[in-house]
Amino acid sequence: MAGGGAGVLNKVLQSKKISIGVFADAPPYGVMNSSGQYEGFDIDKARALADSLGAEVEFVSTTNASRIPMLETGKVDVVIAALTNLDERAQVVAMTRPYASEGQLVVVPADSDIRVYDDLAGRNVAATRGSVPATILQTQFPAAKASLFDAVADSIQALRSGKVDALMESTAVVADIRKSEGSAVRVLEAPALAPSLVSFGVKMGDQIWLNYLNNFIMNYNISKAGNDSYNRWLGMDVPELIK
Predict the structure, then answer these.
(1) pTM of the full predicted structure?
(2) Are 29 and 61 in contact (CB under 8 A)?
(3) What residues contact residue 202 under an 8 Å CB cut-off, 6+ apart?
(4) 48 vs 57: CA distance, rounded Å
């Protein structure tokens, strides 16, 4: 169990143990596989953090709702679970520098002549009803023809069959699409739309621990291991935005 907010770095260095809140059912960030082992984008970061401290890691499964209470009650030393660093969230827990960026990307067939966002004008673009991409198409790309589906799988099938010219989805969903579709598709090489930043969360009041985590993230995101992890789970290099 983690101690209070102050002195976490010293506690971890002395005990050689660190408790980290992670997702167990949220691919590609964190899942528990059939062997009972945690794996995923966030899990790579957690293991690398523990290694940097010479500590044994204890994973504690968390959910969207339990992440912040876990920190406030000292049940974990740090949460690494796709925590978007919203301003209101930063009023109750300390947020590190970003270790990842989310956003919306556009996928097209590999042989498509669509190269930049402006090329979407007049094209059929799939998105999921009620999603951020659906709103983006309406507000930022009124010249595109939005084709809205109830499920991501339907959007993918529409792209496969040529019913749409492109689809817009989040970074994490696009990573799964790239895995399933392989060389049949490509992602537009353009900045992500509606970007958001993702941080580690820690309990308020321990600046030394926060400083260490910021330093770790900075070094990890410029490392080969960090770039390999980004490519494995999100299908792209570490964005310049967070280096």
Answers:
(1) 0.79
(2) no
(3) 5, 8, 71, 77, 78, 79, 93, 94, 96, 209, 210, 213
(4) 10
Contact present, 168 and 188 (Cβ < 8 Å): no
Reduce the secondary structure of the chain to three states and give it as a string. Answer: CCCCCCCHHHHHHHHCEEEEEECCEECCCEEECCCCCEECHHHHHHHHHHHHHCCEEEEEECCCCCHHHHHHCCCCCEEEEEEECCCCHHHCCEECCCCEEEEEEEEEECCCCCCCHHHHCCCEEEEECCCHHHHHHHHHCCCCEEEEECCHHHHHHHHHHCCCCEEEEEHHHHHHHHHHHHHHEEECCCCCEEEEEEEEEECCCCHHHHHHHHHHHHHHHCCHHHHHHHHHHHCCCCCHHHC
The H or E element containing residue 218 is helix 207-221
Tokens 């820690």 belong to 202
Query: pLDDT per residue over 41-84, tens digit each?
Result: 999 999 999 999 999 999 999 998 899 999 999 999 999 999 98
Domains of the chain: 8-101+197-242 (3.40.190.10), 102-194 (3.40.190.10)
pLDDT in tens, 149-191: 998 889 999 999 999 999 999 888 898 898 889 999 999 999 8
Q: Are 166 and 187 in contact (CB under 8 A)?
A: no
